Amino acid sequence: MYGARRQRDLDKVADTVAHAAPHTAHETLVRAAWGLGRLVAGGEFTDDEARATLHIAAQQRRIPTGFLGHSYTANPNTVLTRYAVRR
After folding, report:
1. CA 51, CA 68: separation in Å to the nearest integer?
2. Residue 65: exposure state from Cβ atoms within 10 A (0-12, 13-18, ≥19)
3. Which of 37, 58, 61, 85 has its CA 20 to 30 A from that of 12?
4. What b/e sequence results for 12-38 when a residue is b if at least 16 CB atoms lie within 10 Å of its CB, and e otherwise?
5. What is the pTM of this model?
6. What is the per-residue DSSP string for 28-47?
7. What is the pLDDT of residues 25-76, one digit of tens each?
8. Sign of CA dihedral 27, 29, 32, 38
9. Extents of the domains making up the chain
10. pLDDT value at 85 more than 70
11. How does DSSP classify residue 78?
């Protein structure tokens, strides 16, 4: 049950990004990245799960994802890991 709830949460974030209104897509992606970054820092999701979710949603919406990092490995210059490092 816990895994299903976690997947629903990730799906909801992905859907929000993938269907963001015109002219708000990038901001929506950034907010989603910060939100998932907090959850990664708290241990709710792995960095790989969060990053994959954001990349897939951004690709569906055709949003450039350079700020998310070029791979699913932790990169101290990404939004996802910056929050965890600052905590």
Report:
1. 7
2. middle
3. 85
4. ebbeebbebeeeebbebbbbbbeebbe
5. 0.70
6. HHHHHHHHHHHHHHTTSS-H
7. 989 988 999 999 999 999 999 988 998 999 889 888 888 766 555 443 444 4
8. negative
9. 2-86
10. no
11. S
